[in-house]
Amino acid sequence: MIISNTERFISRFNDNKFERKNRISKICGMRKLQYLLVIFFILLALPAILNAQREITVAGDVIYVKVGDGLNGMLMPRTDASNVDVAFYFQSGSMYESDSVSGTSNLLVKIIGDKIISSLKNDRNQLSNQNTKFSYYVNTEYAVLKFTTTSQNIPACLKLIRDSIFSGRIYQPELNKARTSILQQIEEEKHDFKKIFETRLLNGLYVQDHQKFETLGNATEIKTFDLNTLTIALKKYYVPNNTIVLVTGNFQAGNVEDALETTYKDVLKGEFNPETITKIVDLRPMAYNTQFIIEDTTNNPEFQICWQFPGTNNNPHDSYCAFLINALLNDKNNYIQIKAAKLGCKKLTVQYEANNFNGILRVSFQPSKQNLYTTYQFIITELGRLNKTLLNDVMIGAAKIKFKKEYEELKKSKEYPTWVANHWTYDNNTFLPELLDSVMPLGMPRIERFVNDYIIGSPHITGLRISKADRSALKIDSLFTDIDQTVAQYIFTYRQNVTSLEGDDNQLKLRNLLQWLNINTDVNVQVNGFSDEHEYRRATDEDSIIQFMDSMPTFHMVTSDFIKHKFYVTPELARSAKIVRYLYEHGIAAERINGTSMMFKSGNKQEEADNMKCNLTLNKVHKSPSLYEYHYGKKKGQ
Description:
By secondary structure, the chain is of the alpha+beta class. 43% of the residues lie in helices and 18% in strands. The protein contains 25 helices and 18 strands. It has a seven-stranded mixed sheet with strand order 3-4-5-9-6-8-7, sandwiched between helices. A five-stranded mixed sheet has the order 10-14-11-13-12, sandwiched between helices. A four-stranded mixed sheet has the order 15-18-16-17. Helix 3 (104-120) packs across helix 5 (172-189), helix 3 (104-120) crosses helix 8 and helix 11 packs across helix 15.
């Protein structure tokens, strides 16, 4: 095709244009110049000619097509299917949004989807509700529009998307309607227990980054979006080179290839380069272990424990390990599954949610009410020492067999093309087809390092869904309660001349602090005691405090004379020491707790009240070895 186009271009070149005074020029240099110009124009046009060519790659049952100006197609004919699915994937999810434009992806999909639904309502159109089903959604990485129809309607589906998106516009009434619908949905989800639970999990896993996982968007920002904001997003992300067309079902591949090329050959490539997405997405790691409770109407209490895991695109090599660990933990013959079942656990499933830019390992289980906390403690403890229990050659071998079987079943299923599309980033569609060959060679050292980095050495979040009645009857709050990073901002308050904690609020904070230290074993705490100059300078129970501090060599005091004479204890010192003593007596090691004390001067009653308190300083201690030690052992002299 390239050669024939070039030949036609040369044949139309007319030497008569170079005639002078009705005579053809005999100057050889002029003729050389003419041919050089021809060659120049050919070379100039060649990239455009090449880009317009259809590129086809066949891999098993899947046909990959690139047409027009960079649009990617994936075709999977199935003669046993009755219909055809035509799905469009646009890399335009919440993961690519900044806080100021949170929700643009969802709003755009809503507008486009409603526009197409309106078109399908017209029975006079080739595509209508009579012969086509249509659905749309947006997730963290893709906006997806899907038609289910007959093979004869595939060209009409392609044209409808072209006219609605690539050549379409957004109008104010469409924006107003979509905005109202989404704001209503956001409001409704505030009362959906499952959505509330999932939101708390994401908030705990990603903290500042959690907005990237809220596909609905931020209500405050959505209210401010105008046509210009959405038009910019439409022109940026909804372009051929950022689009994957997935066609599966009963159709002739050649006909669809022709239809793709015919429909999109004149659609211009966007300025946006999807490859830059992989260079700007950065998710911050968790810092602490956290836990929470959501009251639900469920009859069966359910725990979910989640870790941040690698994404298939930002860290493919570690994601191979993640797939294998997922198979290992789901093996019903492993020690954790067997013991949990004996404790009455109704369900124990592990799921590696493998997105491109992030992953989540989600462990879900429903313990019996009689052994609710015992089962939780067992599972979380065993997951924290996988390297000593399940990681061995026999279990790894069994996990590989299990994974191979599941992968081969997936590859034969109709969901396989969807999986490939979801893990197709820019020009790379190889991850899923090559996954099995990448997982099978994994050895013990590689798996051990992965488990140490992402499970044993990595914080997690635990959520508990439980009914209000069970929460009260099982007295779960005494064992498991809401704890997050706000522990670091705790302030214990006191009345004048009082050094013991009073009130339910102070007692709750103290219990939460203890639980925080129990689940974050790599965190040390310093309790800072304060007092005001107007307070009485001697605590009334100094003997017990003095005796305790004699056993705490790490306790720091502002007054050095105290160590020498041991005459009295000041209020600020007593306040700090009593919290430290409570933590010590409830199992927190002495080397993890510390205390300071300081007196302040106040200028008014408000400052005086503010000076009677204790606050906390939390320090995370990295117990894991350095990278050098981990790979090569200790340095010489250590």
